[in-house]
Design a protein that fits this description.
135 residues, alpha+beta, Lipocalin, eight-stranded antiparallel beta barrel, 8 strands
Length: 135
């Protein structure tokens, strides 16, 4: 009888472990990153204007374009690639991005991203934070 009782408990614990895994919070709102985000910034010291946008798609791809305007010259830089999110964007998730830039170079980046309403706060490894607005 004890043997069957142990098997019954083993079966119950095995079932519970699958239930706990499958009933996890699948809706952690990481889809909040999907869409197009815009930013603009002007350096108060030299007047350089920087603006751009980044688009995250549902299928794990991203594209970004940045335009710098400085002393009458315009520079455009872009990257296309893939991204993954680890964590919850409401709390601050790690977003890994790997891609190829407009010059053909491989690019990888890691940011801590937090989405609050129509704002995306992106903090890089140096601790600098850029605020994006949903377009």
């Amino acid at each position: 009888m004890k043997k069957y009782l142990k098997l019954l408990f083993a079966a119950i614990f095995a079932t519970l472990s699958f239930t706990l895994v499958s009933c996890g919070d699948d809706d952690d709102d990481n889809g909040a990153l999907v869409g197009t985000w815009y930013y603009a910034w002007t350096d108060p010291e030299d007047g350089e204007a920087i603006y751009g946008e980044i688009t995250f798609t549902k299928d794990g791809k991203y594209s970004t374009t940045e335009t710098d305007v400085y002393q009458g010259y315009t520079y455009v830089y872009s990257v296309n690639g893939t991204y993954t999110v680890t964590g919850d964007l409401k709390e601050g998730a790690v977003v890994y991005m790997v891609g190829v830039d407009s010059e053909g170079d491989n690019v990888d980046a890691k940011i801590i991203a937090k989405v609050a309403g129509n704002l995306l706060y992106a903090t890089d490894d140096d601790g600098d934070t850029m605020v994006f607005t949903r377009k």
